[in-house]
């Protein structure tokens, strides 16, 4: 199950020239506005004809300009969830859900009930789209796309039009979607927190070109990728196991190199979770600190340093089997005399980890 | 004065209703196609098509009627083969009245439908395509339901216009009782004879009632459909 894309298309101001592969799971197409993300999505969906390119889903060629192949959008079996939902206003939720299912014919998913249950839209079936909230609309749009039995699901900034609260409400559904379906998902976003929570693979796009691509945890913890993602958004993703909920409202998560105390996490002890820790929320110390209010102190080893033109330095620490990024000033790095190989303590405040940055983890990705 | 409606008056009303209904029903598919082409397609000659469609609106109706007579008359370049091959004759028949009424009402119908097609978000049609619907299916399941208010409004407007068509009709198919004497022609005919004012007045009132009825029906249908679409 995979998607292979190679595209060239002239856009006003720049040329899209992107080549990437998306394995099973969620691949985040990440980049700033105007990077060409939406054009990539439209080209894969068959709604835009690129100047040149080749697109292949699970070995099935959807587009090959060299060989003159260009399947029409309705023959591609590529599901789309757009930013604005695009529900049919003249149809009820049930009819909207049934729309693609009807055209899928014999390919249609066997159990529409499971999709409806997974997305929590059972109570909405008789309503008209105009009577739904933004979050409900997006869940119905996701269900509608899934029930058309797509071989690939494209999600173009599906949460961008929602406020923070509705985003938080819908993210768990997307995690279930990732974990319970076996359809490759290409998820377009410019929000690092969404990418960190959902993606198994990240493709960073800027000005029409793929700058970096790789497994999420690896890419987000790579100091070299920081300029691509933007230093303010830099942060590493740690996966761990939920150990216990404490009475004071904190949850304990075990990671490969220690434990983290975080604001209350949904889920039963034993569940795998994924936590994003912003690089600028991490403090470094050379000696084991004492008498600190911060609850999370992790011992690790400096594995890489990267300084750019600004006053900051990105320090990558090896903590157990995970990598953690810290963004500190060049002055601090000099004062601590940081160098690769050196033992170091990373300090992170529990409350600095936003609830939006904690989510359920995907089953461990297959080894390369 | 209003108590007795004569057989001739009934004939005129019945004929007018038939002519207008046939005119609207026959021109609706072409109206949808033309409106869609003008709203969505970019092709050479688009402005010329637009001009042709609107021509009956600005030409004197007598001119339109005369051109129809030249083209669709028994010896006309279009009328002769149609009659020879399909047995469809227009000259001095009620079908000719329907053709004249349809052509005169066409610009109004196309205009209403075109505006509603332009209001449809193409993104919805794209979404339908990604769900597996081919173009004709997209049109039937998404575009058509969304433009339904415009189609209804355009159809009723065209019907009302067809009911009132006079100049082109009388020029093309004359004023034959029972065949081409529609309401306006009948009113005109009654006014030509002494003592015909009463009959003319009754027909005038019938015209007003039918037109008002059509207008109210179109409003009501439009509101009903808009409500079904959730106010969008």
UniProtKB/TrEMBL annotation, chain A:
The keyword Membrane applies. The keyword Translocase applies. Residues 291-357 form the Mop domain. GO terms for cellular component: membrane. InterPro entries: AAA+_ATPase, ABC_transporter-like_ATP-bd, ABC_transporter-like_CS, Mo/tungstate-bd_C_term_dom, ModC_ABC_ATP-bd, Molybdenum_import_ModC, Mop_domain, P-loop_NTPase. Keywords: ATP-binding, Cell inner membrane, Cell membrane, Membrane, Molybdenum, Nucleotide-binding, Translocase, Transport. One of its GO terms (molecular function) is ATP binding. Residues 1-232 form the ABC transporter domain. It comes from the Bacteria. This is ABC molybdate transporter ATPase subunit ModC. The gene is modC.
From TrEMBL, chain B:
InterPro entries: MetI-like (IPR000515), MetI-like_sf (IPR035906), ModB_ABC (IPR011867). It holds the Pfam family BPD_transp_1. It is found in: Cell inner membrane; Cell membrane. Its main location: membrane. Residues 13-216 form the ABC transmembrane type-1 domain. Keywords: Cell inner membrane, Cell membrane, Membrane, Molybdenum, Transmembrane, Transmembrane helix, Transport. The keyword Transmembrane helix applies. It is a multi-pass membrane protein. GO terms for cellular component: plasma membrane. One of its GO terms (molecular function) is molybdate ion transmembrane transporter activity. Belongs to the binding-protein-dependent transport system permease family. CysTW subfamily. This is Molybdenum transport system permease. It comes from Profundibacterium mesophilum KAUST100406-0324.
């Amino acid at each position: 199950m995979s998607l292979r894309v190679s595209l060239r298309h002239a856009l006003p101001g720049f040329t899209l020239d992107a080549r990437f592969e998306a394995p099973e799971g969620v691949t985040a197409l990440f980049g700033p506005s105007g990077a060409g993300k939406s054009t990539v999505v439209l080209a894969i969906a068959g709604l835009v004809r690129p100047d040149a390119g080749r697109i292949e889903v699970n070995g099935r060629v959807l587009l090959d300009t060299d060989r003159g192949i260009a399947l029409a959008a309705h023959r591609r079996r590529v599901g789309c969830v757009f930013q604005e939902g695009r529900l049919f206003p003249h149809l009820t939720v049930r009819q909207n859900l049934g729309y693609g299912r009807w055209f899928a014919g014999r390919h249609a998913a066997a159990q529409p009930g499971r999709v409806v249950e997974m997305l929590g839209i059972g109570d909405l079936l008789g309503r008209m789209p105009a009577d739904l909230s933004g979050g409900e609309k997006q869940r119905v749009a996701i269900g509608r796309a899934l029930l058309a039995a797509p071989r690939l699901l494209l999600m173009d900034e599906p949460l961008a039009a929602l406020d923070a609260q509705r985003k938080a409400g819908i993210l768990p559904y997307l995690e279930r979607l990732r974990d319970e379906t076996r359809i490759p998902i290409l998820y377009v976003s410019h929000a690092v927190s969404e990418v960190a929570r959902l993606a198994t693979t990240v493709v960073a796009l800027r000005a029409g070109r793929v700058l970096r691509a790789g497994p999420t945890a690896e890419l987000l913890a790579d100091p070299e990728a920081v300029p691509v993602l933007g230093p303010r958004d830099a942060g590493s993703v740690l996966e761990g196991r939920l150990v216990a909920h404490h009475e004071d409202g904190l949850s304990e998560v075990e990671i490969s190199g220690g434990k983290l105390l975080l604001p209350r996490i949904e889920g039963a002890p034993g569940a795998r979770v994924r936590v994003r820790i912003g690089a600028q929320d991490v403090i470094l110390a050379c000696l084991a600190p004492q008498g600190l209010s911060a609850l999370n102190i992790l011992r690790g080893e400096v594995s890489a340093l990267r300084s750019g033109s600004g006053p900051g330095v990105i320090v990558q620490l090896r903590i157990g089997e995970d990598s953690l990024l810290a963004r500190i000033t060049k002055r601090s790095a000099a004062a601590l005399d940081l160098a690769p190989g050196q033992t170091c303590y990373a300090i992170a405040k529990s409350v600095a980890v936003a609830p939006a940055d904690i989510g359920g983890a995907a089953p461990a990705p297959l080894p390369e | 004065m209003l108590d007795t409606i004569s057989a001739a008056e009934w004939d005129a009303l019945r004929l007018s209703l038939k002519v207008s209904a046939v005119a609207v029903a026959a021109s609706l598919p072409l109206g949808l196609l033309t409106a869609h082409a003008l709203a969505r397609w970019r092709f050479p000659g688009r402005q010329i098509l637009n001009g042709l469609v609107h021509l009956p609106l600005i030409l004197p109706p007598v001119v339109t009627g005369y051109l129809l007579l030249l083209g669709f008359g028994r010896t006309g370049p279009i009328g002769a083969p149609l009659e020879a091959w399909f047995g469809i004759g227009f000259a001095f028949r009620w079908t000719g009245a329907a053709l004249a009424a349809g052509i005169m009402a066409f610009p109004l119908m196309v205009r209403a439908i075109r505006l509603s097609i332009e209001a449809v978000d193409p993104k919805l049609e794209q979404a339908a395509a990604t769900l597996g619907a081919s173009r004709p299916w997209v049109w039937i399941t998404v575009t058509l339901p969304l433009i339904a208010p415009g189609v209804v409004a355009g159809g009723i407007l065209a019907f009302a216009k067809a009911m009132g068509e006079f100049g082109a009709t009388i020029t093309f198919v004359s004023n034959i009782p029972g065949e081409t004497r529609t309401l306006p022609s009948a009113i005109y005919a009654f006014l030509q004879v002494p003592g015909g004012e009463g009959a003319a007045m009754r027909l005038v009132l019938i015209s007003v009632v039918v037109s008002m009825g059509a207008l109210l029906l179109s409003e009501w249908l439009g509101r009903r459909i808009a409500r079904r679409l959730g106010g969008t």
